[in-house]
Model the fold of this input.
Amino acid sequence: MVRYTGPVCRLSRREGVDLGLKRWRRCGRLNNPPGNRPKKLRTKPTEYAIRLREKQKLKRIYQISETKMRRYFEKATRQRKMATGDYLIQLLERRLDNVIYRMGFAPTRRMARQMVTHGHVRVNGIKTNIPSFLVDVGEEITISSKMLNNPDVKKVMEEVKKIGVPSWLEVDFEQGKGRVIALPTAEEANLPVNTQLIIEFYSR
Done:
């Protein structure tokens, strides 16, 4: 699958909700899908379309391919520790690019992914360039000094210092490092998605 590199607000408009793909600007015209005129009449979506849109919404929040999304779902269905939907969110939250984003070292998941692929991130002191790497409890993540001095990174760190990081993370902003101290939960992720509809989509 070719990764989408176009205007991210177009994705939010397609799903009818701000997916948080921009840090410092909210996406407008969310009630008007791209390509449609505001007053154009639309038919009521089918059950399939509703489930599809919910799946697309989650996929676009984390900016992953359909192949990876299905793999995460299949992994979530095989475990018996918790509800499938909750485990699916936990897997996505544990992705290295997402952890970088949640720690406040990148304004968006897209930039966090670039930081990882360009070799600016270490896990337990080892350079890791795989955005989908699943971080576990106790592991330490460090960003390079170059990124620590990046203006956008500095700006988002100052913002996150005020609002705080998720409870499953601890961060030392001065040193540009953080640690996973617990597993993430779907409740704390607080995403605008209905995971039950996603389960129904893949189980059809």
